Amino acid sequence: MYFIRRLFSWRLTSPLLSGLCRSFLWMLLGAFVLSLLLWGSGLQEQDLAVYTYIVHGIAAAFGGLTAGRRAASKGWYQGALTGILYGLIVLLVGFLALDSSPAGIDLLWVLAAGAIGSLGGVFGVNLQKS
């Protein structure tokens, strides 16, 4: 029984990787909700720009929260790294999949994702179990 429990219960110990996994799970959930909103209402894809930024902000915040909770200290640092890496991965996917060229505003978006992730990391470190 111990072998089975040990085999199927793996855990990411790195705060950065666990935060990235959690942020991509939140992005997946948000994209699903937005696609249901598109399907069930009369919205067009062009109307979803603000909602997309909200979903990415929430995903960066929860990723930073998870990274901060897993880190022993400096949750702001782990959260900021998680947010910046999340923003860079999203930009890379957009560049490769949609063939969009990176612009100066994209750097601002990555910095905003880092700031949101840092704020999540601050709250995450304070949510740790003592």
Structural class comes to mainly alpha
Shape: globular
Radius of gyration: 17 Å
Overall pLDDT score: 87
In terms of DSSP E residues, the strand content is under 5%
Order of SSEs: HHHHH
- Helix % is over 70%
> What is the CA–CA distance across the termini?
30 Å
Helix and strand arrangement:
Elements: H1 2-8, H2 15-40, H3 49-70, H4 75-98, H5 104-126
Kindly describe this structure.
The chain has 130 residues and is an all-alpha fold. The protein is built from five helices and no strands. The radius of gyration is 17 Å and the shape is globular.
Give structural attributes.
mainly alpha, globular, 78% helix, 5 helices, 130 residues, single chain
Question: TL;DR?
Answer:
The chain is mostly helical and 130 residues long.
